[in-house]
Each structure stands twice: as C-alpha cells, then as structure tokens.
Amino acid sequence: MITLLNRAFKFSQWRQQQPSNAVAREAGAPAFQVLKLLLLVVALLVSMLVGSGPSYADGDTVELRVNQLLSQMTIDEKIKMLSGTSDEMHLPGIARLQIPELKFSDGPVGVRCWGRATAYPCGAMLAASWDKNLAREYGRALGRDCRARGVHVLLGPGVDLYREPQCGRNFEYFGEDPFLSAQMAVGYVLGVQGEGVATSVKHYAANDQEILRTTIDTIVSERRLHEICLPPFKAAVQDANAWTLMAAYNKVNGYWCTDNEILLTDILRREWGFKGVLMSDWGAVHECLGPLTKGTDLEMGRTIYYTPEAIKIYLQEGKVTEAQIDEHVRRVLRMSVSLGFFDRVQEDKSIPLENPGSEATALKVAREGLTLLKNQDDFLPLSRAITRSIVVVGPNACPAVIGGGGSSGIEPFSKISLFDAIKSGAGSAVDVQYIPACPGADPTGNLSFDYQGVFEPLSGNPGHGQRGFKADYFEGPDLQGTARTSRMEFGINNWWGENHPNEVTTPEYSVRWTGKIKPAQTDEYVLACASDGARVLLDGKPILDNWSTHKGIERSCLILPFKRNEVHDIVVEYHHLSGGADVQFTWGKASSQLTSAEMEAIRNADAVVYAGGFSPSLEGEGHDRTYDLPDDQPTILKNIVRLNKRTIFVLNAGGNVAMNDWIDAVPALIHAWYPGQSGNIAVAQALFGDLNPSGRLPDTFEKRWEDSPAYGNYPGDPANGGTVKYEEGIYVGYRWFDKKEIAPRFPFGYGLSYTTFRLADLQVSQASGNAASGNATGSGNATGDVTASAKVSNTGARQGACVVQLYVRPLDRSIDRPVQELKGFTRVELSLEKAKLLTSR
C-alpha cells in the first residue's frame, strides 16, 4: 500500500475555508489518450494550517554558542560578514574566533564553480518524473558533490514558476504548479542539507522571466502571490528547513526584492518563521540602508553597498542599530553552527570528485523524466530485429546538448551525444549514420568543433578520435611561459563573467585551444568566433581576429570551402584583461541544404531521428528564448519528413515550443528536456524499448502562444526599466486553460507509455472512517482530512511506471476558484497484471 499525503495549506490573507471535490488523473495511455480519474469528494479536503516555522535541532545549544561568538566580535568583524569576498563565491570568516569562511557554488543542476562536476538533468526533467523520493536522492547526490569540493552553500533549487515558455530559466524550475514545485523543492532541500550543505532557494520572488530581470517591476496581486508564487518557497522553509533563500533581481509591486519589507520581514520572517539567511542575488542590492533594515542579511557577490564606511555612518546617525547588525550575523552563525561548519572540515576527501553514485543518480533522473508526447500507431519502440538503418540528423545530435546556459552550465568529466548513445544502443546489426545539420553562421551557437573536432592528447596515440580540443591555460594575457593547466575540453563556449576560470589564479589570463577539424562532406563551411578578445588560426594562418577588442563582445565569421575528409589544424587563442570574459567558437556547414547522398540515406533509412531544440547559448540565464524553434530548424525538419515519414523528433528545451508547422507530420515526439551528462543514454534506451518512458509534463503546452495566460502581458512595458502585470491572477497554466475552456496541445500531467494502466475500486473516506461515494458528487460541510484510494493495474505488455494525480474541485462557487487544483500525486512502478492499492490522504 502506498500512502499519498496532501500537504495542508492556507490562504494566509483571506482565511477562507473552501469545500472541495477531489479529482485524480493519470495520463499514461498510448496514442494521445489521457486517462482521467475523477474522485468526487464529499468533504473539505484541506483544513487551515498556520505554520509555526522551522525547528532546529539542539536549538538552545546552538543559540548559546552563537551568542558567545557574537559577544566576542567587534563591529568591524560583524560588518565584514555581511557581504561576499572579491572572488564572489565566498563569505568571509573571522580567523581570530575560528569562524569559518563559507564557500558557495552555483547550482541548481550541478556544482558549477569548482572545476568539473556531475551534470544532472535539469529541474524541469526532475519535475517530469513526479517522484518526490527521486528529488531527495537528487539532492543527496548534489550534497555529496558539494562536500567533495568543500562547498558550504549550494545556490539552488530554483522554484520560480513556469509562466510563459520563453523564460530562459524555465528548465531550472519545477514547472507551473505550486504544489508540484513545492514537493520537488522539499525533497531537493532535504537531500542536500542532509549531507551537511545549505541550500539557497531562489529566486524570491515572482522572478518568472529573464528579459529585463534586473529592472523589471512585477505587479502581482496579493492572492496570486500567496496562492501561486510563494508556496514552493514556503514549503522549502517550513517543511524542509531550508537554511538560505536568495532575493531576486526584480521588483515586486514597486520594491526591489532585496528591499521589500512585505516579502522579507512580514511574510518570510514573521509569518513563516524563517530563522535562516536571506542573501541577495549577485548584484541585486541597490543601496545599503533599505536592504539592511528590511531583511537582506548578505549582499552577494562583491561588497558594493554593505561597506564598513556606509554602515558605520548609519550607526552613528541611529538609522541602523547594532542589534540589527547582530541579527544578520546571528543568522549566518546559526546556520554554520547547526550544519557543523565549525566542527569539521567541509571538504570530504573520501567522496570522489567524479562520483559513480552521482552519475547513476543523474541517469536515473533522465530515465524517469524522459517524456513521450506523441507515438502515432505505436511507432515506438523500434525493433532491433527489423531495423537495419537509422539516420541521426540535427544540430543537437552531436556534440552533446546536456543542459541550459548560465549558472546551470556544468562542465562534466564526460558526456555522451545522442548520436553516440544511439549508435552504442542500436547494436552491431543496425547501421547508424550521422548527418550534421548545422544552423548556419550563428557565432553564439553551441556547435564548437562540430562532431569531428579531434583532441590530440598530451601523451598516448594521437588522432584517437576523441571529440574535443586541447586547452592550455596561462597566467597572464600573452600566452607566455608554461601553461598552468592543460586538459581536454569538449567545446569552446565559455562565459566567465568578471571571474577567472578555475584553471588560473590571476585576473589577467589567456587560453589556447588546439585541435583538428575534418569535414564530413565537401561543402562551404562557416567558421565563427564571438569574444572580448580572441583570434583563430587555420592551418597556421590567421583567419579571424578580434584580439584587441576588450570593451564588449565582437563577432566575426568567415565562409570557406572544405573537401570531404580533409583534415585541418585549428587554433583558437583568447586573452582577458578586464571586464566580462566571453569566448565562443563554432564551425559548421554554411548551408542547411542536404546533399544528394544525404537525402538518399535519409530516404532509405528504417527510421530517422531528428535532434533539435535549443542549446546553452540560446536558453539560459540572463535572456529569454524564442517560442519558435531556433534558426531554420522547422524547415530542415519538414524537408527531412518529406524524404522519410518515419522521423522521430527528440526535443531539447525547457518547456513548450511552437509545433503547428510540424507536429502532425512526425509520428513520434520525445521531450528530452536537458538530460544531463548521461541523459542521451536514456533517450536511446527509450527508442529501442529498453526503457519505458514514464515522464509526465510539469507544464501545460499550449497549441499557440496566443493561448498562453501570459500572452499580452509579457514581457511587459519596457519604459522606466520595465513593468510586467500578472493580469491572469491565480490562473496560471492548467488553471487558465480549464477556466477559459481552451484545449492545450498537451495538458499538464500528460505523458505516454508503452503500456496501459487501469484504475479501479475508487474509494473516498473521511479520516474518521466514514466512507463517501467514490463516483458521485457529494454535498455537505464536513471538514478535516479525507482519504482517496484506488487500485492501479498494468494492463499492457510491458513493465511501466504509473503517475496518479489527485486534484480538488470547489463545491462553493461564491468565491472564484480554479476548476481543479493538484493536491496529491504518487508514482509507482508496475509489472504486468500486478495491482497496487494507492491511497491519498
């Protein structure tokens, strides 16, 4: 028996108790058929619960130790602990009192800032698993990765909600629904913090777009804020005791999130009882006095406003008290004492940096979150017994696309492309051919060294075919002397900002990438570079040069004819003096037109896999992406389908994309999200039936952008820094589509399987044991917990995972409420003809 608990919640500002009906839904039948189960509940499902705040182990002992430390600190030492160090990833300690310096790392899908690390599937893919236990396992693996590197604070999870598909960081978040997001966040936080690492839940709050993110003012109703935007943060605080939250860049209702007394003091501290640390996003503080007095404990990363000079003036003027300073420091000390930072070395050398356990968790998440959206006439899985040839084509087929950009841009120890995964998984009897389909001359595309770049190793046999370049890192800007670090890299697509790469220690540095390119066919090719100071040499001759540029990004490209299998030496040199550090190099066919030989191969293939979507430079932090697929991908895809209708589209994206032009033409669509370093193995396994897809959408996919609840109110009015109004109120995602009776392309909670499930014996009862009718609408005013249960059977031909979803409906329509809201779910693996009783309380 599996018990599914509903987390009670309150409408904190309205104090309304609403009688509700319950609805359970499972979306897992093949060929676009969504299995919906309606459990109509007689009684009120949710009773009001006023949270008493997080509880901390050995609280009296912790507070005693914190007070002792505070009593010994000077005012200068206290102020020093209120902002980050110059490298932006540490919080100062006080050596005199043995207060440890704290080490931070970007997240939320890997430990980014301290060398190579495991690259996990994105948050949206974790949410697509609908597996709370897996979220905790994900967190535990991340926590151990942090401990292996001595990291005290991981900047994650991200729990802002999916409002519109264009948001550049949707892939980091857990979808559109506050309940699903809250459940994932709680598991994640418990997992990470269980390993002795603090999480920083971000971005607080209503930071649902990247465009204008540092200036935008989000105008949001109090009801929307409490019912939709804040529940994931609240759950992380009250149910998982998250130790830190990160205040966002944007304004909310006219006030910066770092200077917002309602968010930081009234809600977070007083209502939720948060005793942890509230830090700013990096550079999100705009002045000293407001944030310091309204709840922002830490200015991160560099010290700009929380300076000793400024704070001491406010102390002298009586605008800030030392007691307020003490409270900020107290929160940092409380976290450090409670998590054991004083009593152990944070770096656990018994945990390997390249951890097999972390890699296994990453693959497990990809396997559970992979989402099959279309499978016309059971086209998938492919049979190895009758499949003799497969053509893999598309910009995301090779090299591997594993994650989005920005603070989620993890460089793994290893990764596998979709082409390599399919070739490996197909077996020797299946001929797998790769045809590159590059999107042209975009110098910011993640197509570095294409699929034939060859790394010549420092030792061993040269020309062994490993894709990548040799990278030499030099201290100083002139590539002089002996390289401080030399290693293999998979690509030249780096954004270091105002930091320096981990391979060097100086703010001025240079890098040389050396390798070879080998065109797959005779054609014209584009070589492109975008940087703040780089040059490119081909066969020893300079072809691209912006070496002297240091005031911003300069882009340049060149089209050259290459012959098939003709090997060329390529060298990319980069140096950095000041400002933002950014360098990308790409090369690929100048034309997206297929050759006659390529068309013949596609036409004769038993199956074609088109790998498309977005890449880290197109979907990531700091910018929003397009709703349409990038470049000329739809045209390429349609041309391929005209040649061979047996085409499977494998999509990389953080959410929905425009599909009207091609969705009816392809028999199968797999949403692979951003699957992490090993995730393409899961895609290949699903293609051949070694894996039965079980992911369910954490978002509603509209048929067209005009159907979105954000349409007309995104990206907002850019005047005076920008204003965006959440005019849709509480009607986000499926709530909007239900209310407006708009049919989506794919509904929230939807996903296909290679098997079928049956839900039967539906029962609903009150906690007292009085059973209610399972299939009839009840009436009355009973309050308290109710329990919904059902037997679930696998009625198909394969083992599979069933995701059962419980929804509630209001009986009292006097107050405007959504048609239905998710309030419970569970995922269960089922072998054939074995029923399990599921209970939702």
Short description:
This protein has about 850 residues and is α/β, with parallel strands linked by helices. The chain has 17 helices and 35 strands.
How would you describe what is shown here?
The chain is α/β, with parallel strands linked by helices and 841 residues long. Among the domains are: 2-48 and 756-840, Immunoglobulin-like; 59-338, Alpha-Beta Barrel (TIM Barrel), CATH 3.20.20; 438-591, Sandwich (Jelly Rolls). It is built from 17 helices and 35 strands. The two termini are 13 Å apart.
Supply the key terms.
841 residues; alpha/beta; Immunoglobulin-like; TIM Barrel; Jelly Rolls; six-stranded mixed beta sheet; globular; disordered N terminus
How do the helices and strands line up, and which of them pair or pack?
Layout (H helix, E strand, L loop, with lengths): L1 E3 L15 E6 L10 E2 L21 H14 L2 H6 L9 E2 L10 E5 L16 H6 L3 H17 L4 E3 L22 H16 L4 E7 L12 E3 L2 H8 L1 H8 L5 E4 L3 E2 L2 E2 L4 H11 L5 E4 L8 H6 L13 H10 L4 H17 L17 H14 L1 E5 L13 E5 L24 H9 L4 E5 L33 E7 L9 E5 L3 E5 L11 E9 L5 E9 L2 E5 L2 E5 L8 E9 L5 E9 L4 E9 L6 H9 L2 E7 L19 H11 L3 E6 L15 E4 L7 H9 L35 E3 L8 H7 L16 E10 L4 E2 L13 E9 L5 E11 L10 E10 L5 E5 L1
Parallel strand pairs: 1-35, 5-6, 6-7, 7-9, 8-10, 8-29, 9-12, 14-15, 14-26, 26-27, 27-28
Antiparallel strand pairs: 2-3, 2-33, 4-5, 10-11, 13-28, 16-17, 16-19, 18-25, 19-24, 20-23, 20-25, 21-22, 21-24, 30-31, 30-32, 32-35, 33-34
Helix pairs in contact: 1-11, 4-5, 4-12, 5-7, 12-16, 13-16
